[in-house]
Design brief:
There is one protein chain. By secondary structure, the chain is of the alpha/beta class. The protein folds into 3 domains: 22-126, no CATH class; 132-453, Peptidase S8/S53 domain (Rossmann fold, 3-Layer(aba) Sandwich), CATH 3.40.50; 468-543, Immunoglobulin-like (Sandwich), CATH 2.60.40. The chain is built from 12 helices and 24 strands. The chain has helices at residues 50-58, 72-79, 104-110, 147-152, 156-160, 187-191, 214-223, 253-267, 300-310, 391-412, 419-428, 447-458; strands spanning 13-16, 22-31, 84-89, 94-99, 115-126, 131-134, 169-174, 195-200, 225-226, 230-231, 238-243, 272-275, 314-318, 340-345, 369-372, 376-379, 385-388, 470-475, 478-483, 492-497, 503-509, 513-517, 524-531, 536-543. Strands 8-11-7-12-13-14-15 form a 7-stranded parallel beta sheet, with helices on both faces. A 4-stranded antiparallel beta sheet has the order 3-4-2-5, sandwiched between helices. A 4-stranded antiparallel beta sheet has the order 21-20-23-24, with no helix packed on it. Helix 7 (214-223) runs parallel beside helix 10, helix 10 (391-412) runs parallel beside helix 12 and helix 11 crosses helix 12.
Length: 545
């Protein structure tokens, strides 16, 4: 299937190909350990930026062994064999290597005592005259043509409060960002110094502005600005642009490029990542995923997405465009736990015909949320307001909205923050969160409502940590209960006692998010006890009327 979750191809633009002649074979090499590494957890500044370290501190997250880079001595063992080391993954403790021969030299790698696993991940056949096509082009605040997607998520209120992404750092992972360096729709981004840099994982040192337009369209949805004609969802955020895709083919090695890309995003300290990419089937069908693989535990990209969330990054990933196709379901890394897999709807909130279905194969709700993916407003590579269809475009709509919401969350209270609290507030605000569906998941979030829920959840922040079973808030005669990620799928027993110690309600909570009506309770203080058989939590709330 196509790696970009985009449905409508508006135009094609050809540009020169920068690459290698002949055939290149790619392999993922995983090492057994990180023994004798020169890096230390006591000195994270050697491999993480100050911003990345600060983000962990903000969320109360410690550096661990996954943050340590791959042992350079192990890498040197392979490079001295004359093998090109293409990219690295500290989270997966491995590297991707590139060879012009698919058997003889890799056999030497397999024999190294430091190597745990070697996996063939695909090949690229190129010639010097190959061209790469751009596959896809498709109110005090004047949103212009973007007004429908803005209104649908009800984000205007926090925009009007001044939360437009200032000081937030977003990583956009895609296949190329054609003309972003000259497009008038990004004048503000460039002139205000908010475009912090680019990284080409696929072809180091390549010009990401000269090739695929897909990432440029995605970026415009988040932060584009054509005064009076278009305004993006987070128009004052800062950005790193990261290319992980080789557009003309679909190979398993691109999932490893994706892992390297999100690790890079983490290292520079991003707050939010948008990935309008997904993987299910490949040019070499022997590498194809199956629906059973869509459990968040098979694809290295999915594992990395969850790790990024656990390190304090809000990850938005397109759910997929296979709803009307044989595959039908979401792909990787949209199946990852702890991230926002984003489905697509029309401007009236109806499911887009192409948006992929959940749940995951282990029966978690997917997609998590939805945004406008039919006739989504954007700025094309010519600098004109345009539109396109696909979950490729619903994901950046959501990314921009969550960037502004995260900004408000961080400005509303001191650290430490809780990403599970943030995620649950967004889901609780969504149109279908009481009755999620296979195609729309929890539905369309209401960003203003999520901000209010977030404040109510934070009322319990002194009692809730990432290791606790659930988060609880009380508002408008309703007790809102959301399990933390680590306890998804577990049955939790809930008991509510009044101030005299009398049991007034009990229930077995099987859903990850649930509400309990307190309409019939009398005024007073109540104690909530939660237990999963191993751990117990208690909370208090006041019913004032």
């Amino acid at each position: 299937m196509k790696k970009f979750y985009l449905f409508l191809i508006v135009s094609l633009l050809m540009s020169g190909f920068s690459g290698f002649a002949g055939t290149n074979y790619y392999f993922f090499v995983q090492f057994k350990n990180k023994n004798n590494t020169p890096y230390s957890l006591s000195n994270p500044s050697a491999y993480l930026s100050a911003r990345a370290i600060a983000r962990r501190a903000d969320f109360g997250i410690s550096c661990d062994s996954t943050d340590l880079p791959v042992n350079p001595a192990y890498i040197n063992q392979i490079s001295t064999l004359g093998i090109t080391v293409h990219s690295k993954s500290k989270w997966m403790n491995g590297i991707t290597v590139r060879l012009t021969d698919d058997s003889s030299m890799i056999s030497m790698v397999r024999m190294l005592s430091t190597v745990k696993k070697v996996q063939y991940t695909g090949k690229i056949v190129t010639t010097s005259n190959v061209k790469r096509g751009v596959k896809f082009q498709a109110d005090s605040l004047n949103y212009g043509s973007a007004v429908t997607q803005v209104n649908q998520l009800n984000i205007k209120s926090i925009h009007n409060e001044g939360y437009m992404g200032q000081g937030m750092l977003v990583g956009v992972m895609d296949a190329g960002f054609s003309n972003v360096n000259i497009n008038p729709g990004f004048d503000s981004l460039r002139l205000q110094g908010r475009l912090l840099g680019t990284k080409d994982i696929y072809l180091s040192g390549n010009n990401v502005y000269a090739e695929d337009a897909h990432g440029a369209n995605v970026l415009s949805i988040i932060t584009g600005n054509l005064p009076g004609k278009f305004l993006g969802m987070a128009p004052k955020a800062s950005f790193w642009l990261i290319r992980t895709e080789f557009a003309p083919t679909e190979n398993l090695f691109e999932t490893d490029f994706w892992v390297s890309g999100i690790e890079f995003a983490d290292s520079v300290g991003v707050d939010v990542v948008n990935s309008s990419l997904g993987y299910t089937q490949f040019d070499d069908v022997s590498m194809n995923y199956t629906y059973a693989d869509m459990n968040g535990q098979v694809s290295r990209a999915s594992k990395a997405a969850t790790m990024a969330a656990n390190k304090g990054i809000v990850v938005c990933n397109s759910a997929g465009n296979d709803g009307a196709k044989t595959w039908h379901y979401i792909g990787a890394p949209a199946d990852a736990n702890g991230i926002f897999a984003v489905g697509a709807v029309t401007g009236t909130g109806i499911a887009s015909s192409f948006t992929s279905f959940g749940p995951t194969s282990d029966n978690r709700v997917k997609p998590d949320v939805c945004a406008m993916g039919t006739a989504t407003a954007l700025i094309n590579t010519s600098g004109l307001a345009s539109a396109g269809n696909g979950t490729s475009y619903s994901s950046p709509v959501m990314t921009g909205a969550l960037t502004c919401l995260l900004q408000k969350y961080k400005n509303s209270r001191p650290a430490p923050y809780n990403l599970a609290t943030f995620r649950n507030a967004v889901i609780m605000s969504s149109s279908l969160y009481q009755n999620p569906t296979a195609q729309l998941g929890y539905g369309i979030p209401d960003i203003d409502k999520a901000a209010k829920i977030l404040l109510s959840l934070e009322g319990f922040s002194n009692h809730v940590s990432n290791s606790d079973i659930c988060q609880i808030s009380y508002a408008e005669n309703m007790l809102n209960i959301a399990k933390n990620n680590a306890f998804f799928g577990e049955t939790v027993r809930l008991v509510i006692y009044d101030a005299l110690g009398r049991q007034v309600h009990s229930a077995l909570l099987t859903d990850n998010i649930q509400q309990i009506s307190c309409e019939d309770f009398t005024r007073g203080v109540y104690v909530v006890m939660l237990s999963n058989g191993r751990e117990t939590q208690t909370h208090k709330f006041l019913k004032a009327n």
